[in-house]
Amino acid sequence: MAVANPVAPGAGHVESAHSEAAHGHVPTYAETLANNRLGLWLFFISEAFLFGGLLAVRFYLWGGTRPEVSQFIGLLVTSVLLLSSISMYTAEAALENGNRRLFLTLLLVTAFLGLVFLGGVMIFEWGLFPSLYEGHLTPWGDKYGAVVFLMTGMHAIHVISGIIFILIVWNLGRKGHFSPSRKWGVESAAIYWHYVDLVWIFFYPAIYLIGTAVTH
Predict the structure, then answer these.
(1) Which of 1-5, 28-32, 172-176 holds the top average pLDDT?
(2) 72: part of which helix (H) or strand (E)?
């Protein structure tokens, strides 16, 4: 009569461990989240060199002067962008508290305010719609117009990408993709949007407040 070979205690666990080693380690959600956060902040550091370079160009070319731009428009678009940061923060907090309806609504409010900010810059600073407002700065006119268009244009690209990011998150949230414990997409969109707002906090005084206004 054949005798079955005895299985040593723990052999199943050893075999499982060897199997996991052969197929590679599968990272946990916490590990993936930590790596994602690190990658995002490294991206922001690289972006800081970009925006810092733009500020350096502004102060090198303008010195203690600046173009004569509307203080009211500058304050208005800045206020709109700050309000959008508040709505984005509140949207993330709503998701953490399980209020999905408020979360989705405030995402759309944030995207709308971002569009209002873009519209204000394009109409009043770029003069893209002369029938509404004819601006006096052009990207090829002088050093003031060139720098204004460069700074606001680069920032506008980031605002547009942020709006697209938010709308993607809204669409995924509408489908129930996020939960209070698993919301990296929402967190990353919020951090990105706050970062874009922070950049404008530096751009706003550099363009509108610092230096003596030069009349064109």
Answers:
(1) 172-176
(2) helix 71-96
